[in-house]
Predict the structure of Phosphoserine phosphatase.
Amino acid sequence: MRLVVQGPSLPQHDLTELSRLFGDTPFTSLTSTAAVLAVSITQQAAVSDWCTPRQLDHAFVPDELTLSQLGLAVMDMDSTLITIECIDEIADMCGLKPQISAITESAMRGELDFAESLRRRVALLAGLDASALQRVLDERLQLSPGTLDWIAACKQHGIRTMVVSGGFDFFADRVKQLAGLDYAHANQLEIIDGKLTGQLLGAIVDAQAKADLLETLRLQLGLTQKQVVAIGDGANDLKMMAAAGAGVAYRAKPLVQQQASFALNHTGLDGLIHLFSPA
């Protein structure tokens, strides 16, 4: 296996100090902020104790888990591929952000069923002019740091990419275009006479739907589970992450970090490139 260490800053003297846990074997630098070391033992507790106060991400990654072996990357959208929660920003347009954000946070922590939380939040938007969606897209939607680098690496290695979101297709389709993704699935808001009705159209893309969409595409592409990576940040992503060979928690809630294969808290999504780079 290999130990990948990365963060906003990674001085060489820090790497030298960390390498003492592994017999002074030197790290190989991947970039100025990421390095990798082939290891035979994990030293998980010691490495975690060393990295945490330095705001460094670390992961012990199986040797076979590399970009060249992956075939599909499935990603959440809100607070993962993009920096915002779209429904919270829509709510801000009509003075309802505190109420809706509270429901969002509860669902993300796994305290509230996602489908029920989504219905409650969407119902609060009834009567809102649909132009608010375009305003959120134009004024507030931004890709997360490192998104384009990560997707470019996927394309370079022939990895298909899909966003599956409990958010809305109005935004997911735009994110698909901006990032150059292969597939996008999300919920559809009902709009009549230019206003949101407070209802959704079709089946809700919830936790189980995310996992099912991953599994369906995996089978269509003829891939094994080990060839799939899923990235998310909330409780609604856990089933999707469990259906993949590797689940990555990206700046995620504690519950998600506990159940993920790996966690990125201090890097952008380009940290995924380093995570799956061989030693």
About this structure: The chain is about 40% helix and 20% strand. The mean pLDDT is 94. The first helix runs from residue 12 to 19.
